[in-house]
Specification:
Strand order of the largest sheet: 3-2-1-4-5
Helix content: 40-55%
Number of domains: 3
Mean pLDDT: 79
Largest sheet: 5 strands, mixed
Shape: flat
Strand content: 5-15%
Number of strands: 5
């Protein structure tokens, strides 16, 4: 149609270009793209002389459990391919192992070429009797005649656990209570923002949430940078933070600000594609 319009009535070309495709046409195009990606992946897998698998189970924005399967294959150069499949809404070992094997079988992998499996270290993953790691190792060693098979705890999850282990509750308790007082009440929030604008600060305090542990570094950095304004505002509100007068507490605050900032930067360096060979250097 667009080719014809270019000749017959070119002035109406944009109107025709804006016509939406039918839902069936869109669905067909998506299916064709998916099938093409699968065929490309199958061709790559056939060239692997060795491959490792990393898996991570999480929830998507629609509250559906998703299993991310990352295949790292070696064929002379390091080729990294990724496959994402949905699993059921439970996280038992069988619910993870079955779709994992199904995806790899669909790609026609040579099980004897599997050399390692990386997980997040959850109990359902590493259980000695029925964990995913145990079942996966048994399947691979059946295919390769009992050769060594390695398992690893994901470096990203280890780094996250290290950060969560650095609690320093004497600092975090005061910071969280103060931030909640400033942010959770509308009047306090508006008045504090007004104070910051008067002092030409172009940012405020973010919320802290334990679920997203990386928020800790951002909250602490802003809290430290705005410590004078926070101390002034809390005193006016009759909620004086006595810890601001303690040199030892301020040193602890400065220390945890620096440490969490380093951990946040490290976490960002470890994320992204094609960084497998840089992980060790980053740490």
């Amino acid at each position: 149609m667009l080719k014809a319009v270019e000749i017959v009535c070119p002035e109406n070309l944009q109107a025709f270009a804006n016509i939406s495709l039918t839902r069936n046409t869109v669905a067909d195009k998506i299916y064709d793209l998916s099938a093409d990606l699968d065929s490309q992946l199958e061709r790559k897998v056939k060239s692997f002389i060795a491959f490792s698998v990393a898996i991570d189970e999480s929830m998507d924005i629609t509250d559906v459990a998703q299993l991310a399967i990352f295949i790292h294959g070696a064929d002379g150069t390091l080729t990294v391919t990724e496959e994402l499949v949905p699993i059921t809404d439970t996280t038992a070992a069988a619910d993870i192992f079955t779709p994992l094997v199904s995806v790899l079988d669909r790609l026609a992998v040579d099980w004897s070429c599997a050399v390692s499996l990386t997980t997040d270290g959850a109990t359902s993953m590493i259980g000695r009797k029925a964990g995913v790691v145990t079942k996966f190792r048994e399947k691979v060693q059946t295919a390769n005649g009992g050769w060594d098979f390695w398992t690893f705890h994901c470096i990203l999850h280890q780094e996250a656990l290290c950060c969560k282990a650095l609690k320093m509750d004497n600092v975090m308790k005061v910071v969280v209570q103060t931030v909640n007082f400033l942010q959770s009440r509308g009047l306090n929030h508006r008045q504090f923002d007004s104070l910051l604008r008067e002092k030409d600060h172009n940012y405020g305090l973010p919320y802290h949430t334990e679920v997203r542990w990386l928020s800790r570094g951002a909250v602490l950095r802003h809290f430290f940078d705005l410590r004078e304004e926070i101390e002034q505002f809390m005193a006016v509100q009759g909620k004086r933070v006595l810890e601001f007068q303690s040199t030892e507490w301020m040193q602890d605050l400065a220390f945890i600000v620096d440490v969490t900032e380093h951990l946040n930067n490290l976490n960002k360096m470890l994320q992204g594609r094609n960084k497998l060979m840089q992980y060790y250097d980053s740490v």
